[in-house]
Amino acid sequence: MVAAVLTLLWRDVAGVTELTRMLARDGFLWCSPKSVSQQALSQRFLTFPARLFEKVFKDLLPHLKAAWYTRTSRPIPECVQFTLSRFERIWIVDCSTLEALFRKLSSLEDVPSGQLAGKMGTVIDLMTRLPVEIWFQENPRVSDTKFEEDILKIVTAKTLLLLDRGFYHFRFWLNLVEQKVDFVTRLKKGASIQVEQVFTDSYALRDRRVRLGSGTKKTPFITLRLIEVRSGKTWHSYLTSVLDPTLLPPYVVADLYRRRWRIEDAFNTVKRLLGLSYLWTGSLNGIQLQIWGTWLFYAVLVDLGDAVADELSLPFDSISLEMIYRGLYHFSVAHQKGQATDPVQYFAAKENQDLGIVKQQRKPKIKLIVAPFPEQQRGSDQFFFQASSQIPLTTGIQS
Fold it and tell me: In angstroms, how far is CA 133 from the centroid of its own chain?
């Protein structure tokens, strides 16, 4: 069943009928040819325990994480290096709603398409890009805050969370602080704040300690740091529980939160590229089976992308997971012809760069400002960074 689900994802098989033909004639992945009925295979997708797929997924993650640490040639983003010298881990937390189009099983052809099928709560490790935990709620309209208890159960001290504004909940923030867990999120418009201390106040940057809340049970008082960075005529505002600018400088906070978008990239990969927007079944077990199978494929794809980045001594962000996914077809053809045996070497080879594995660099490389109290020139107009030739790195951490 693992081979069947991964084949559906990798080969983008139209349905169980075609999958049955493939299994009968060629087999797939590690499975030899086997004759089964289409009805039997369809029923298997409806009843095969999803918890077994979950176990495969969670048993695999430690091995992929260990493999990540064996790679030392690809550079790590500077803000991640800096932050991990203060924290043990950086996790991104967000939720995503699933759509159900019911296209894979003929037994469900008469079910209306377009219905919402549930909601995923997801935690991604910013360093490894691997999933940490995934939860599923059958109600697609459930609030993100329903995942707060799950988050509190898995976080430990010295964790920094990058939170979506769906988790804008003062009581939840206080619970994190009590567990010695810090976070970065965005300030909501119209929020009432009381300034307690000013760290930096310049044309392009404001960094202040503030108090939010009304003192009620629903919105208790909480002291946070408010960082505002100017870009053109727009101010971008960030809240963090890290009150000391020397521990987490303002531009590091801004750059970290910019990287929160990596979880949106992950959602885009699993939903659009790997097909999680098109669920195969309306059954709860079948939906969960596809969720775990898709995230399993995603984790392997991330591991392969990271290995290619290390082989090329490039940052992970320079590698296109979509083009690696599409390039697997070309690798399989080369493998059948006896021309390739290692996918990492194949994708890193100079003659295969036309596959588009390496993204085109659009922006010049710039240096992150890590000073806790950066001096800003009045009249300057910068967002997050200054050119590396102008501002030296003050911490001694090398990219």
Answer: 11
